[in-house]
């Protein structure tokens, strides 16, 4: 009896695995006909026909135009119905919020960004995100919501845990809040994980299974793709490199309360602090003029001044690049990625920072680890987090562990509990 039950669960599991394998190839446009599916998955014709039939019946796949014939009757091409639903995505930064909407293939259909202070707290911030979502004029049902936040998140519960730059957010049930408003499954992650996933699947990192995304914005963080999967770690805080200890004779106090953190000497926040001090002390005319005109400096003022040739700003950028490069060299020696993608607000505006990072990584890493290592600027730039948040939701919905819970109803819309199962 027990044996039979175990065997039946096993068979059911295999059915979902083959269904998802067929769906994955169609939705990534890696196979367009039943024959291609059979070849690539090494599955028999009747099994492929059965799975495709189930997918067409569920509305996820449709038959399109006639494909090319290799002799005999031309086959009908199979197409993923990416417009069957919509995914709402948001990225909350320390000083701004971005929202967007993707189709079920992960293509970003529309997006919008505005200034926002995360210290307003979770209720006001999530209401703001909801209000921005509500301005989208889509008719498709909401299949899921993905949100990136600038701090560590317990992925299973969708709660930020002791995030240093998000006062008032510790332990807040972000997932439950959004799930209640939209009656949709919600996934929340550290924004740098979303950016890493976005760049891996839809940016410069496509097809490279071991890579690191480094975000240099107000703070510093890293997302790790290892063996083709996002590595979140046991508690979901892998890649929290902003608060690793660096040699800092001054003992600068970080926003997390400790001293000697990388972020406290090399993040956008640190650049602005040091540039403002240099301007006030009369060491840089360029920065002083900018400070006078704007009332305060932003990271892009420092990168702009460095591009302009301002000596103080150039030294600040070099120092930041050196510090970040040192940290990355450790990571490269430990983890041996073949690509490092550098993104975030500070990285986006200056080649000088990237050059300083490159120099220090190559200098300090093992020759074998850097032999095929490329260090590049993000291609998706400020869209990386939104694109990645969408793909995170889509991957979860179409995983073999989850699709079985909604496939027979044809849609995961209206099923917030799916994110927790
Ligand atoms: Zn810190």
Topology record:
Layout: H1 2-27, H2 34-41, H3 45-58, E1 61-66, E2 76-80, E3 86-92, E4 96-102, E5 108-115, H4 122-133, E6 142-149, E7 153-154, E8 159-160, H5 174-182, E9 186-190, H6 191-202, E10 211-216, E11 220-226, E12 229-230, H7 262-266, H8 268-280, H9 285-294, H10 299-308, H11 311-335, E13 339-343, H12 345-349, H13 351-364, H14 367-370, E14 374-377, H15 384-397, H16 400-403
Helix pairs in contact: 1-3, 2-3, 6-15, 8-9, 8-11, 10-11, 11-13
The structure holds zinc ion.
Residues 243, 254, 256, 258, 261, 263-264 line the site of zinc ion (ZN).
CATH homologous superfamily grouping of the largest domain: ATPase, nucleotide binding domain
Largest sheet: 5 strands, mixed
Along the chain, the helix and strand elements come as HHHEEEEEHEEEHEHEEEHHHHHEHHHEHH
Number of helices: 16
What ligands are attached or bound here? zinc ion
**Can you tell me the CATH topology of the largest domain?**
Nucleotidyltransferase, domain 5
Describe it.
- There is one protein chain.
- The chain has 421 residues and is an alpha/beta fold.
- The protein folds into 3 domains: 2-80, Orthogonal Bundle (Arc Repressor Mutant, subunit A), CATH 1.10.10.10; 84-197 and 383-420, Nucleotidyltransferase, domain 5 (2-Layer Sandwich); 204-379, Nucleotidyltransferase, domain 5.
- It has 16 helices and 14 strands.
- The chain has helices at residues 2-27, 34-41, 45-58, 122-133, 174-182, 191-202, 262-266, 268-280, 285-294, 299-308, 311-335, 345-349, 351-364, 367-370, 384-397, 400-403; strands spanning 61-66, 76-80, 86-92, 96-102, 108-115, 142-149, 153-154, 159-160, 186-190, 211-216, 220-226, 229-230, 339-343, 374-377.
- It has a 5-stranded mixed β-sheet, with helices on both faces.
- The longest helix has 26 residues, at 2-27.
- Mean pLDDT is 91; it is low at 1-10.
- The site of zinc ion has 7 residues, from helix 7.
């Amino acid at each position: 009896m027990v044996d039979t039950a175990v065997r039946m669960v096993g068979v059911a599991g295999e059915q979902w695995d083959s269904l998802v394998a067929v769906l994955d190839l169609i939705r990534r446009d890696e196979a367009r006909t039943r024959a291609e599916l059979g070849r690539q998955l090494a599955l028999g014709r009747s099994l492929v026909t059965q799975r495709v039939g189930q997918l067409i019946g569920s509305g996820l796949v449709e038959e399109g135009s006639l494909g090319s014939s290799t002799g005999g009757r031309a086959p009908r091409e199979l197409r993923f119905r990416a417009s069957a639903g919509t995914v709402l995505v948001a990225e909350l930064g320390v000083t701004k919020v971005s929202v967007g909407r993707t189709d079920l293939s992960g293509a970003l259909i529309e997006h919008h960004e505005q200034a926002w202070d995360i210290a307003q707290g979770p209720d006001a911030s999530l209401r703001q995100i909801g209000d921005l979502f509500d301005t989208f004029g889509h008719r498709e049902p909401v299949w899921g919501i993905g949100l990136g936040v600038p701090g560590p998140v317990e992925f299973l519960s969708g709660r930020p845990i002791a995030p240093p730059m998000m006062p008032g957010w510790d332990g807040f049930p972000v997932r439950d809040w959004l799930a209640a408003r939209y009656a949709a499954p919600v996934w929340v992650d550290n924004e740098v994980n979303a950016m890493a996933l976005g760049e891996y699947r839809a940016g410069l990192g496509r097809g490279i299974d071991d890579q690191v995304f480094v975000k240099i914005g107000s703070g510093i963080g890293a997302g790790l793709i290892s063996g083709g999967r996002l590595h979140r770690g046991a508690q979901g805080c892998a890649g929290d490199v902003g608060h690793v200890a660096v040699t800092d004779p001054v003992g600068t106090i970080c926003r997390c309360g400790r001293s000697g953190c990388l972020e406290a000497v090399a993040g956008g926040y640190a650049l602005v602090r040091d540039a403002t001090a240099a301007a006030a002390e009369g060491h840089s005319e360029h920065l002083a003029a900018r400070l006078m005109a704007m009332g305060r400096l932003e990271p892009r003022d420092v990168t702009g001044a460095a591009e302009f040739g301002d000596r103080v700003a150039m030294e600040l950028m070099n120092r930041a690049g050196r510090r970040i490069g040192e940290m990355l060299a450790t990571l490269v020696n430990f983890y041996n990625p073949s690509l490092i993608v550098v993104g975030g607000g500070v990285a986006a505006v200056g080649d000088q920072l990237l050059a300083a990072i490159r120099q220090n990584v190559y200098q300090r890493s093992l020759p074998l680890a850097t032999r095929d290592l490329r260090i590049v600027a993000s291609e998706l730039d400020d869209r990386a987090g939104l694109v990645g948040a969408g793909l995170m939701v889509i991957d979860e919905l179409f995983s073999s562990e989850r699709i079985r819970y909604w496939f027979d109803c044809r849609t995961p819309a209206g099923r917030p509990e799916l994110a927790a199962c």
